[in-house]
Specification:
493 residues; mainly beta; Methylamine Dehydrogenase, Chain H; 2 domains; four-stranded antiparallel sheet; 34 strands; disordered C terminus
Length: 493
């Protein structure tokens, strides 16, 4: 699931040319912070907002060149059990939270000091776990995104995490070749499992919570018992792959295990026995796999930038989904099996409908991570902030704070355009015809305080022009002789 690394396990550094080329990729992302509600309230708001603006978003949400979700490869994805929240982890060291199905960015979580390889959401949606190359696992509370605790103990980068169905156990796999089991939510280390002879790139827990599956760079898959009487015991080792096992997935019924490998194959195994049922040949190294909840569809992502759908039982009617311009490193399928999310080296996240594989017109866009030419609209509802592509209608009850402004986090309303050095207060309201001067600043009451034609409350005489600044008093005037009262300030030519 990770980019190829040297034998010593160190991370490959991308060339400057590779990094710069991503700026021209079509992407899908959004970004802003502000979760302030309880989970139940937040999800209700998200659902209402998505329903109210769905039609408009379908028309406005296709991404512009330079719009991206992260500033580097998207390595991990997870969808909450209610299907309304998507978490993404990236080499840019951040975790982002997105609402579904509209794809608005809700929050960016910072704290890791190296690449984030994987993410997992607890079944009840109250906790998020992230695995990082900084050798730690971070736990975050949802929906607030508040850091809960940091788990340490691995001696090399943590490549994968999984949470048990009851939400009480966390499993982590590491380049140090071990698997660690932790109690949740306190993060106490319960047990360390040894047996693999290379990095553990993937861990999954069966739906009944009785079996842990691990995939490794040693080309094997191991099944471990989580039953109380035989806790942590190795049950069996599955062989058949001839290169690293990069990813695992388990169907919701617990009867099917799927594995992807750098040997260019996807294999399907029975659970709990581990009998090999099918083997499919992909077009290149398989970086990630996913399984539909009903176990009737397998999805793989590869180093040829493609997502492939493999209908079971025989995979004969495969369909290849194209659109990414870099390796597909992460996949997640919604609990109802109708939506697929894919994350890529091209820094984007794409949403597809299942089982047909149609690309959905949804742009997951982070304006801060994207090219400086990319514009977005920011609005909030009851304390929750959403970022969406320009032209997207703001749902009823939403307050728009930034409408297609290109100056990063500057929050001007209307059609204002801000110079890159312009700083605006989030509650500053500028007149729709305002074009801010490079020296302009905005305050919560008056709007633009310099060259202040855009301040509705500031009345300036036409003969004084915009070289005079009125100090927010509706009664202040500039006279033709420019003799201003004490509340008026003069700026000479």
């Amino acid at each position: 699931m990770k980019p190829e690394r040297p034998e010593d396990g160190s991370e490959v550094k991308k060339t400057e040319e590779q990094t710069e080329s991503r700026a021209e990729v079509y992407a899908i992302k959004r970004g802003q912070s502000g979760w302030k509600l309880s989970r139940r309230e937040l999800l209700g708001v998200a659902a209402a907002a998505a329903a109210a603006a769905a039609a408009g978003r379908a028309q406005a949400a296709m991404c512009l060149t330079g719009a991206v979700a992260h500033t580097s490869d998207v390595m991990g994805l997870a969808i909450s059990s209610d299907g309304r929240l998507l978490a993404s982890g990236s080499i840019d060291q951040t975790v982002k939270l997105w609402s579904l199905p509209d794809g608005a960015l809700l929050q960016t979580l910072s704290g890791h000091t190296d690449s984030v390889w994987g993410v997992a959401i607890s079944p009840n949606g109250s906790l998020l776990a992230s695995a990082s190359a900084d050798k730690t696992i971070r736990l975050w509370t949802l929906p607030t995104g508040t850091p809960l605790t940091t788990l340490t103990g691995h001696t090399d980068q943590v490549d994968a995490v999984a949470i048990s169905p009851d939400g009480k156990l966390l499993a982590s796999g590491s380049t140090d070749t071990t698997i660690k089991l932790w109690s949740l939510p306190d993060g106490t280390l319960l047990k360390t499992l040894s047996g693999h002879t290379d990095a553990v790139f993937s861990v999954k827990i069966s739906p009944d919570g009785q079996t842990l599956c691990s995939g490794s760079g040693d080309s094997t898959i191991k099944l471990w018992s989580l039953a109380e009487a035989t806790y942590g015991t190795l049950l069996t080792t599955l062989t058949g792959h001839t290169d690293r096992v990069s990813s695992l997935a388990i169907s919701s019924d617990g009867r099917t295990l799927v594995s992807g490998s750098f040997d260019d194959t996807v294999k399907v195994w029975s659970l709990p026995g581990g009998t090999l049922l099918e083997s499919f040949s992909d077009t290149s190294d398989v970086s990630v796999v996913a399984a539909s909840p009903d176990g009737r569809l397998v999805v793989s992502g590869n180093w040829s930038n493609a997502v492939t759908l493999w209908p079971l039982p025989n995979g004969a009617q495969q369909k290849i989904l194209t659109g990414h311009s870099g390796t597909v490193f992460s996949l997640a399928i919604s609990p109802d099996g109708r939506l697929l999310a894919s994350g890529s080296e091209d820094q984007t996240i794409k949403l597809w409908s299942l089982p047909d594989g149609a690309l959905l017109p949804v742009c997951l866009m982070d304006t801060i991570a994207s090219s400086s030419s990319v514009q977005g609209t920011v609005y909030s509802i009851d304390g929750v902030t959403y970022t969406v592509p320009c032209g997207t209608p703001v749902p009823p009850g939403g307050t728009c704070t930034c409408n297609c402004v290109t100056c990063g986090s500057c929050s001007c309303v209307g059609t204002c355009t801000c110079n890159p050095v312009c700083t605006c207060n989030p509650v500053c309201t500028c007149n729709p015809v305002c074009a801010c001067n490079p020296q302009c600043t905005c305050n919560p009451v008056c709007g633009c305080q310099y060259f202040c034609a855009c301040n509705p409350q500031c009345i300036c005489n036409p003969q004084c022009g915009c070289q005079y600044f009125c100090s927010c008093n509706p009664q202040c005037f500039c006279n033709p002789q420019c003799n201003c009262n004490p509340l008026i300030y003069y700026y000479p030519n």
